[in-house]
Amino acid sequence: MKQAIKADAAADLIPDGASLLIGGFMGVGSPHRLIDALVAREARDLTVIANDTAMPGTGIGKLITSGCVSKVIASHIGLNPETQQKMISGEIDVDLVPQGTLVERIRAAGVGLGGILTPTGIGTLVEEGKQSITVDGKDYLLETPLAGDFALIAAHQADYVGNLEYSLTAHNFNPIMAMAGKTVIAEPHTIVPVGVISPDSVKTPGILIDHLLERAH
Amino acid sequence: MKQAIKADAAADLIPDGASLLIGGFMGVGSPHRLIDALVAREARDLTVIANDTAMPGTGIGKLITSGCVSKVIASHIGLNPETQQKMISGEIDVDLVPQGTLVERIRAAGVGLGGILTPTGIGTLVEEGKQSITVDGKDYLLETPLAGDFALIAAHQADYVGNLEYSLTAHNFNPIMAMAGKTVIAEPHTIVPVGVISPDSVKTPGILIDHLLERAH
Amino acid sequence: MDAKEIIARRVAQEIQPETLVNLGIGLPSMVANFLPKDVHVFFQAENGVIGLGARPPEGMEDPDLTDAGGGFVTAVPGAASIDSAMSFGLIRGGHLDTTVLGGLQIDERGYLANWMIPGKMVPGMGGAMDLVAGAKQVIVSMVHTAKGKPKILHECNLPLTAQRRVSLIVTEMAVIEPVEDGLLLKETGPGVTVDDVISATEANLIIRGEVPSMQL
Amino acid sequence: MDAKEIIARRVAQEIQPETLVNLGIGLPSMVANFLPKDVHVFFQAENGVIGLGARPPEGMEDPDLTDAGGGFVTAVPGAASIDSAMSFGLIRGGHLDTTVLGGLQIDERGYLANWMIPGKMVPGMGGAMDLVAGAKQVIVSMVHTAKGKPKILHECNLPLTAQRRVSLIVTEMAVIEPVEDGLLLKETGPGVTVDDVISATEANLIIRGEVPSMQL
């Protein structure tokens, strides 16, 4: 069982310079209270690994605007002009990774694989510096695991063991990232007593969760 | 939407010589009615890809006893002495694969990966004939995808789109195999109208399912 | 009928019943509006829903249910929520029947470039590389030229999205099928002649006999 | 106390509170009976449950809820059902704190052989190779000898389960920790002398000072 903690206490656990896997897709299913707490404590030099950097004023966009971030590994930054500006000015280093490759690299880290072979990116810029391997006559890129010092996970409902349920398109990267952070912090909307969630509804087993944020309201 | 079909009609779709991914772990979560129908139609020369061959008289054990199977790819045959006897007599060819590797190879086939790198099997007999690849100073085996002509899936509940829910330890290989069969046949306990299952409860999207068996009762 | 509607209507004719379809943001998403009522398909949004529905009535939006562009949507009966690993597993694993994407350039090999203009626009590839590498049928829907300049070229000079021949190109001027030996002109747009298409296209076009006009 | 109970009681002392533990079929599964009441752990069964509970009352079995040996079990409050990919993801990904397995042989390198006797017994490795390769702590629990013959050898002659030094070996005669330079004898079993252990063991044992007796 875990005592639920406040967002600022959770943000204090995350040192400057840390690498963070952050759930969410254009801000949907992102851990918004954790992000606000990181902005409030003026976190610096973070590496953010996420699908995208949302929009200015939303989710991960707030970390970008507030100067918390020095590196981004994402599939898409197109809807956040600030990320693009800071990339061009050299303030933020950006690695672009195809979305399917990004989630498989994170999964590989979480499930103890040394990498995966994907057809995505063959014959494109993504190929650069990577090993190409032929299996059954088809070429694949070897993509290596991508872990984070922390994973910041948004969930719909938790219990005090840390078991998590997600809602609709707010799943996205969250269930995968929950396996790949050295320390995993979950931010649920609500928390219910242990035993209330059916074992079949659990999508992230609580044993993966290190810290649980208080419910939203 | 799919019309639910009878087990014997489903078994008629499966030709002799086909390779079958069959869900289940010691018979728990196996498609028992499909197996019985294959035995009844005296299927021959099947390749069975499954975690195990259960026990004589149970699940996949019935296919073994009835002489339906010429090849087994599994992680464990220890509780079925008939499989062991038929292996020794040369009637059945057996490939043993570590359980975690087996499920990742099937997943790789289902999700379009050319293979995965696993630490499991390094320095053991499993290594034979496989490429070893070093990532970040650690050795891994390259394990390649494993697909089936058919996947025979047991589920707890379906709707007529083919969306599936599973129960407790009857999940096991089923959700993974449902991605890796050229033709996928699902055998649910019950079938409910479309719209009854919450999108968040669906573990196998119906678009993966080609044929749906009638409910059990 | 404006160029975009022509394109969307024509692409809609390519969508087969009972299939899984991914529509890109912008022009491709208009295709859904022109499907015949009796053609039932499941739309996938790569952010994690199979069975994407229309925009909800005002005040009934769910912040946890959006399309890949972040717009509020609903879910049809029989929908399924999936995580990003499953979403791209379906795409890369060949379970997605059709993807409709926009394009910046496309060339005689049938190769698409649609994710970056070096030094100008670097949005990232998002899901595009996986979609083009993995979907069974890849349809590129785009206006035929950009500011009067051809977008269908001998060879793309923008970075490629994938080293794969796409299935079909639909513009307001033409339907073009990339085949083994080049680009086959299959149809012309409303009021457009074969010569019009040729002069708006840098790439060589293969023309076999009479080229019919789109039936919209 | 028979040999198996000695082993199970001693292994139970190694289990840390609030951890995830996988117990193999047979002797290892007995360990659960000897955990102190205040030590709460989650037991994982590799067939897909975290939070394995005791055998249900007769007539209340669920055919869809068994342990990895196929025996009926229950689920504790806070349990989670998982598929085989997640189950082995947890194992191989370093999320499993402790695995307790049986052994056929173990050697001075700390390498375990426990899945086949060529020409005699070929059950398959099941989950053993993943468990030994991936768990944070690997405890081998086994009787010290087989029909009077040592099982702890200079070098295994049966096929290895993994090329990894296990964390601890617990028998009814000894607790042995494989370390960089060999096998360190840490404790002796009830009524067993260091000389008894040495003569029942083929492998060289490192002995540092006084070797304490197990406290059960």
From TrEMBL, chains A, B:
Keywords linked to the UniProt accession: Transferase
Protein name: Acetate CoA/acetoacetate CoA-transferase alpha subunit
InterPro entries xrefs: 3-oxoacid_CoA-transf_A (IPR012792), CoA_trans_fam_I (IPR004165), CoA_transf_BS (IPR004163), NagB/RpiA_transferase-like (IPR037171)
Segment forming the signal sequence: none
Family the UniProt entry places it in: Belongs to the 3-oxoacid CoA-transferase subunit A family.
From TrEMBL, chains C, D:
Top-level taxon in the UniProt lineage: Bacteria
Entry keyword set: Transferase
Keyword Transmembrane: no
PANTHER family: KETOACID-COENZYME A TRANSFERASE, SUCCINYL-COA:3-KETOACID COENZYME A TRANSFERASE SUBUNIT B-RELATED
Sequence similarity: Belongs to the 3-oxoacid CoA-transferase subunit B family.
Keyword presence, Cell inner membrane: no
Protein name from the UniProt record: Acetate CoA/acetoacetate CoA-transferase beta subunit
InterPro entries reported in the protein's UniProt record: 3-oxoacid_CoA-transf_B (IPR012791), CoA_trans_fam_I (IPR004165), NagB/RpiA_transferase-like (IPR037171)
Pfam families: CoA_trans (PF01144)
Species whose genome carries this gene: Roseibium denhamense
